[in-house]
Specification:
- By secondary structure, the chain is mostly helical.
- The chain folds into 2 domains: about 1-70, lambda repressor-like DNA-binding domains (434 Repressor (Amino-terminal Domain), Orthogonal Bundle), CATH 1.10.260.40; about 75-109.
- Helices cover about 70% and strands about 0% of the residues.
- It is built from 7 helices and no strands.
- The protein is elongated and about 50 Å long.
């Protein structure tokens, strides 16, 4: 099994799941779209720094990208909305979610 091609395939799936073009994805992680294409096809290796940027951008764990361990199934719509938020907005959403969590369990009773 070619690990580079396998990782590249997972990157393609993650990018498409978020509706990102290769060009936009390249901008977000700070590389050229040509390089992204090479990574996705498994013909080029990437640095750990680039792999971490990819993981963060696609909301995929490093374990999933490298080893294929399935991530917890998340709501794609939620990921899309969160990815559009600023750091300050994400912090606010996190605070709201933490405050709401104790009350969510009561809905199923």
């Amino acid at each position: 099994m070619d690990t580079n091609k396998t990782v590249g395939g997972r990157i393609v799936e993650g990018r498409k799941r978020l509706g990102l073009t290769r060009e936009r994805f390249a901008e977000l992680i700070g590389v050229s779209s040509y390089f992204v294409g090479q990574i996705e096809r498994g013909v080029r290796k990437m640095s750990y720094e680039t792999l971490i940027k990819i993981s963060d951008c696609l909301h995929l764990s490093l374990d999933y990208l490298v080893k294929g361990e399935q991530p917890v199934q998340a709501n794609d719509e939620l990921h899309k909305l969160i990815s559009q938020c600023t750091a300050q907005e994400k912090a606010l959403l996190l605070d709201v979610l933490k405050a709401a969590m104790p009350h969510l369990g009561q809905l199923n009773k």
